[in-house]
Design brief:
Layout (H helix, E strand, L loop, with lengths): L1 E5 L9 H9 L6 H6 L10 E5 L2 E5 L8 H5 L5 E3 L6 E3 L9 H5 L6 E3 L6 E3 L11 H4 L6 E5 L6
Antiparallel strand pairs: 1-8, 2-3, 4-5, 6-7
Length: 152
């Protein structure tokens, strides 16, 4: 299972991972157009924690036994058996936030931009060649690769 690993010792807290995550989930995939012209503005699926002097990105860990999936009452979150990713189907999401409360890492956020409240989570840039957050991290604080076992 491939996922994003974080190296907090080299993170500078620039938030470019969040910026590029939003661009990856925009309609245009263009940084200028995404932030100046798209409505609603695309939101990142990665959170940057700042506990100075330490800063680090918090993308979804796509756990082997994800608490968020077990907590989801509508079946909007599920584990893809082929890729190992925890996938969010927004069309099934009822916005109950049980997954937000169940995630021990705080990697799922509520989208307050829409009329109907839905959650957002990292999808490892599904449908794109490589995660934007990893590609555009200036210090190499994010690494995309394989892991064995659970995230815990």
């Amino acid at each position: 299972m491939e996922r994003v690993f974080v190296k907090p010792e080299v993170c500078i807290g620039c938030h470019l991972c969040a910026v590029w995550c939003a661009v990856a989930h925009s309609r245009s995939k263009n940084i200028i157009k995404a932030f100046l012209y798209e409505e609603p503005r695309p939101l990142p699926r990665v959170i940057v924690e700042e506990r100075l002097p330490l800063t680090f990105a918090l993308p979804c860990r796509h756990c082997a036994e994800p608490d968020c999936v077990f907590a989801c009452i509508s079946g909007a979150l599920y584990k893809d058996r082929q890729t190992g990713r925890v996938v969010h189907d927004a069309s099934r999401c009822v916005g109950c936030c049980s997954c937000v409360m169940a995630c021990p890492y705080g990697c799922i956020i509520l989208n307050n931009e829409e009329e109907e409240k839905k959650v957002l989570k990292c999808d490892l840039c599904a449908g794109l060649e490589f995660p934007y957050c990893v590609r555009h991290c200036p210090n190499g604080a994010l690494v995309y690769g394989s892991t064995k076992g659970d995230c815990r």
